Structures are given as C-alpha cells and as structure tokens.
Fold:
Amino acid sequence: MEPDKIISELTFKAVRSSGAGGQNVNKVSSKVVLTFNVNASKALNDEEKALLSVKWATKLSSENLLILNCDEDRSQLKNKEIVIKRFLELLKQALHIPKKRKATRVPRSVIEKRIKAKRNLSEIKQNRRKPHF
Structure:
C-alpha cells in the first residue's frame, strides 16, 4: 500500500456546510466530500480490494464507493487534510491482519497456586461454621 498513489486516486468535492455559522455558511463551500472507488483503484491489488470490500461492507455504496465527509473546520484546506487523515486511518485499520494466537499450556505452578487458594478459602469457610459435635 502506497499512500501517495492512493491519495492521487481520491476525488474531492467542496460543498456548502450545514449548521450554524451565519453568512459564512451561506457563501463559502468549506465542507469536503471525499470519494474513493475501491474497484477502480490501481494502487491496491486484488486481495486488498477483496479485503476492503468485506471490512467496509457497511460503509461502501452500491457502486463500491467509499464516501467520507468533513465539515469540522471553517477552512476547506483543513477539512481536506482531516478527511485524508481519516481515510488513511480507515484504510490502515482495514488492511491490518492480526497475528494468529499461539496456543500455550497453563504452567503447573499456576494450576497449583489456584488449587491452593481454593483449598485455603474452603478452610476459612469451614472454620466459620458452628462446630458439629
């Protein structure tokens, strides 16, 4: 995965932001909409595309487009930087493959310690009982 190649495949669109902000909201297009076509990407191989299609199943549109919005800042450039960071983080998390867990035996000392603790607690509870004559 090469971030520079992938960033060059992204398409951006500036849209008018919603919400409070007065005249600035009405005249400035500061919201940035990022779209990424998973199938048309040349920076990803087929395995990575398949993995992204599975992991991003709920995020992708019917045309396999990932659409991200950002309208956190009043600046279009800052919103573009934020949405690119967010996209790269999503991509990194989706392509990360966790290591397989190696099964290990429980050490004998741990088993003995647990049994000793159980025996100790049992004795404490037996000493609390009334004596049986």
Notes: Residues 116 and 122 are 10 Å apart (CA to CA).
